[in-house]
Structure formats: C-alpha cells, structure tokens
UniProtKB/TrEMBL annotation:
Annotated signal peptide: 1-18
Residue intervals of the Glycoside hydrolase family 20 catalytic domain: 150-500
Chemical reaction(s) catalysed: Hydrolysis of terminal non-reducing N-acetyl-D-hexosamine residues in N-acetyl-beta-D-hexosaminides
GO annotation terms (biological process): carbohydrate metabolic process; glycosaminoglycan metabolic process
Organism whose genome encodes this protein: Parabacteroides goldsteinii dnLKV18
Keywords, in A-Z order: Glycosidase, Hydrolase, Signal
Residue ranges occupied by any Beta-hexosaminidase bacterial type N-terminal domain in the UniProt entry: 25-147
Keyword 4Fe-4S tagged: no
Protein name: beta-N-acetylhexosaminidase
Superkingdom: Bacteria
Its EC number(s): 3.2.1.52
One of the record's GO molecular function terms: beta-N-acetylhexosaminidase activity
C-alpha cells in the first residue's frame, strides 16, 4: 500500500514539474529563431501602442492592422510604455537591417529593430500570432529573433499586356508587406502597351497605351477578342503608389523594355524603330520583330529623356531595362545598323546588344542608378530564333555592376555569370512564373525553389541577391484570374526569400498557410489550389 502511495505521489510531483504546453506560432515566412515560454500575454480591446524614435508610420500601420484584423481600437503614443512597444535600437541585429526581435512577456509585447523596416517586419509577425479565445485576445509568450536570408524578395507585375490600375497595385503592396517581400518589380512597357506618362513624349500614352484588340486562348491562336484595351498611370498616380510602397518599406523597381518589346513606343513614334515603318500597337502576344534603332542618336536621346522622367518618379537605386527576347532580323537587314556595327567593330547582333546595353548602363550610372536586365543581356544564346553565329562568344563584355536577372537557359549560366563578376537575381521560369498554371507549377514546386544553384562556393552564393516571382500578363486579363494564380504561391516564394532553404518544411508551411487562406477569403480573394 505504501508503495502505491509513494508511486502516486511521485507521479503527481512529476506532473507538477512538467512545463505546461505552449502553442507554437504558425507564421509565414517562418522566423529564423523562436524560443517559447509557458503562458500568455492577454491583450485588451483597447491596447496602447508606444513607440520610440521616428516610428510614427509603423505605429500607425500597426494601429490600422489591429483594427482591420481584430476590430481592436488601439491608441498610439510616442512616450512611456504601452501594451505593445516599438523600440528603435541600432544595436539590434546591426548587420541585418531588415531584422527584428520580438518579445512577448506576460505583461507586454516589445518589438525592437535597428531600422523602421525591421520594426514593420516585426509588426507583420505580430499580426499572425494574436489569437482570439472566448472573445479575448491572447499571444503565446516567446522570444523571436528574425531576419531575411536574401536582400531581394520580389514580386513582378506585368501591366504592359493588361492594365490593372492603381487600386490593384496598392492591394498587392499590402499583401507583399505582410509577407515581408521588399521589392515590387513593375513591368510598365511592352509591345502591347506603354503604361507610364512621359510628358516630353505624350504620344507614348495617347497612342501607345491603347490597342484595338487582344489575342486570346493561347500564344499563336490568332483569335482576338475585338475589344479595345488600354490605360496608363499619370505621374501623380506613380508618386502616390511609390509613397504608399515606401511607407511599407517596399522598393519599386521600374522596368522600361529596350531594345526589344518596344512596339508600343515605335507605334507612337515610328522613327524609334529600325524599320521606320508606321505600325499599330499589336494585340498579338509573343515575341515581335520590331526593335529600336540603336544606331540613331535621336533614339538614345529619347531614352535619355524617358529615363530622366522615370527616375524622377522612382527613388529605387536599380533601373530595369528588360533586354529580353530581341529578334535580330531587322538589325541584320538594316544598312544603317550594319554600317554602325562596322564602325564600332561589332561582329554579331549579340555584341551590338551588349554595346547598346552598356551605353544605357553609362547613361543610368550618371543619374546614380544601377542597371538590371534579363539574362539575354549577357549575350548568351537562349532562344531558338537566335543562331549560333548571331550569339557566338562576344568580345564585348557587359558593364560591371550590372544586375543580371536570370529567367531562362541552363541554370549553369548563373555560375558563368557570377564568375564574370555580376550579381544575379534568380527568377528561373520553370519555378517562378506565376502566370503558369498549377499543373506546371503546383504549390509544392513553387515552395521547393532554391534561388541558389548547387555547386556554388560561399563567395559565389553571396552574389545571388535573391529571387523574384513573375506575374506575366499575356492571358491574364482580369484581377480575378491574376489573384487565383498569384495566391497562394506568392506565400511560398516569400518564405523562400525570407527564411531560406534550411528552414523549409512543407507540411509546416501548409499549416501556417491557414492564416492567409482565411484572410484572403475574408477579403474576397479566390485563390488557387493548395495541394
């Protein structure tokens, strides 16, 4: 009997000594480090947000999020202590400018970071860990230390094909911010449309922003909808959007396509084109033959003028020039181009493109901008319509300092590019093209993407700045079709960019995705499949 009593007392003692269970956070992107403590912080319906330093913007965004997410009426003050304290401290993760530390104790929440961007990233984590229980709001006690694996975490929206409008862009920026994505790559010009007001060249939007019809169904269908389509952003629109992004610590990188994908510009000003012919803004999708006449000083002056106006609107240190899918047929047929190549000692069209690209690089450098372009700008052969002769190893070398945006070709080209001294953003189309259907890129494949190819040394790996996911617009005419393809895959790319491959756990990711699935449903966003 005594033995039974002693055994029972030991059992009771051991149970008392065991720590109570904790509720682990479900967060996307997954933080780098989390340490849990038993217990909860209980938050009232009228929490006080306190902030130090220049954090009025971040405190306001938190106040707005608590209202929209939980119907909480928060008060913001810039002195004293609150229920949620935002603390700017340069000693916190000093080598991780977007990083933050979040501490949930029994009496308060504290988010500390060295920069306002880090504070906002902590705020976005906080939004996901507040739980409602019986009408009360609780947060599991824990310490979080978090920072991004990559400095470039981008979503690209192509509006050259279909204009979506300001409200759609602002909504995308909100979603990106909550997923801690920091770069909005805005594809503003293409063959089928020019979407940004340039005051010195008004025909770019008077003519270039509109087309008579659009190809439907698939590439090469030659079936058209017969509907006029168009639209563009005024410079005031752009300023508003850039300001909105800046408050969410998102950099907007503008892309103005050159020397190919320029039909809309050439339709507006025919003297820009190599053929010199008057064309219409095409409704057909795919790669067109029209290409800028890069031998004409007037064309370079046009590009100088255009980049001046675009740069005045976008504070981004990077300017994307496109540079992809240039068909060389018109250049090879042009006496003016052939004469120009001979004068400059250029043997192939690929060398001519590199020479032109370097001229644009110099133009941008004078304006304080770093050039970026799709990986055709290296001169490598990527397309069946390019001959070996046209793209044989070029003597011309791409300007140093260029960011090469990899999207197509053997991933071994990334190492080749890095070995030549260039930084790379990896947007390999087989994994990151969000306009591809879910049969081509299911959520699991999107999540599996690693922007750093195998076989790179640590030094070479440091040249991979990060990744981008691309929403190309050829056959995405509506916001609804865009949303279904974007969500939920954008969350997979966001986690890869922030958490890195070492933190990946697909089952954990799917569980954490429930928060966003519920959020998107409440917002009326119909998403694609999650399995």
């Amino acid at each position: 009997m005594k033995t039974n009593i002693l055994t029972f007392l030991c059992f009771v003692f051991l149970c008392a000594c065991q720590a109570p269970p904790v509720e682990e956070y479900a967060i996307i992107p997954q933080p780098q480090e989390i340490s849990y403590t038993p217990g909860f912080f209980k938050m009232g319906n009228h929490p006080v947000i306190s902030y130090s330093g220049d954090l009025n913007n971040e405190a306001g965004l938190l106040q707005k999020a608590l209202s929209s997410d939980f119907s909480l009426s928060a008060t913001v003050k810039d002195t004293g202590k609150g229920d949620i304290n935002l603390v700017l401290d340069p000693a916190v993760l000093p080598d991780k400018p977007e990083g933050y530390q979040l501490e949930v104790s029994s009496g308060k929440v504290e988010i500390k970071a060295g920069t306002p961007a880090g504070i906002l990233n902590g705020v976005q984590t906080l939004r996901q860990i507040i739980k409602e229980k019986d009408g009360k709001y609780m947060i599991q006690r824990a310490s979080v230390s978090d920072y991004p694996a990559f400095s470039w975490r981008a979503f690209m929206l192509d509006e050259g094909r279909y204009f979506k409008g300001k409200d759609v862009v602002l909504k995308l920026l909100d979603e990106m911010s909550q997923l801690k994505m920091n770069t909005f790559h805005w594809h503003l010009t293409n063959d089928q449309g020019w979407r940004i007001e340039i005051k010195k060249y008004p025909k770019l939007t008077e003519i270039g922003a509109f087309r008579d019809s659009s190809e439907i169904n698939h590439f090469g269908s030659d079936v058209y909808d017969g509907k006029r389509h168009g639209g563009f952003y005024t410079q005031e629109d752009i300023k508003e959007i850039v300001d909105y992004a800046s408050k969410r610590h998102i950099t907007i990188v503008p892309e103005v396509s050159m020397p190919g994908h320029a039909s809309a510009a050439i339709a507006s000003y025919p003297w820009l084109g190599t053929s010199g012919k008057q064309i219409k803004v095409p409704g057909k999708f795919g790669v067109h033959y029209e290409v800028l006449n890069v031998s004409d000083p007037k064309v370079l002056q046009f590009l100088d003028d255009v980049t001046n106006e675009v740069i005045a609107l976008f504070p981004s240190p990077v300017f994307h020039i496109g540079g992809d899918e240039v068909k060389y047929d018109q250049w090879k047929a042009s006496p003016a181009i052939r004469s120009y190549m001979a004068k400059k000692g250029l043997k192939t069209p690929a060398e001519l493109q590199i020479y032109f690209t370097n001229e644009i690089s110099n133009m941008l450098a004078v304006k304080g901008k770093r050039m970026m372009g799709w990986n055709e700008i290296t001169g490598d052969k990527l397309h069946e319509y390019q001959s070996e002769e046209d793209t044989k190893e070029a003597e011309q070398q791409l300007a140093k300092g260029t960011i090469v945006h990899f999207w197509k070709g053997d991933p071994a080209l990334i190492k080749k590019t890095i070995d030549k001294g260039y930084d790379v953003v990896n947007s390999y189309h087989e994994y990151t093209y969000v306009d591809y259907n879910y049969e081509s890129i299911p959520l699991s494949k999107a999540y599996a993407f690693n922007p750093v190819p195998e076989g790179l040394s640590p030094e070479e790996q440091s040249r991979v700045l990060g990744l981008g996911c691309q929403m190309w617009g050829e056959f995405i005419p509506t916001v609804e079709s865009m949303n279904r393809l974007t969500y939920p895959r954008i969350a997979a790319y966001a986690e890869t960019g922030w958490s890195g491959s070492d933190k990946k756990d697909y089952n954990r990711f799917l569980k954490s995705l429930d928060y966003f699935k519920n959020k998107w449903a409440a917002e009326g966003i119909v998403i694609g499949p999650t399995e």
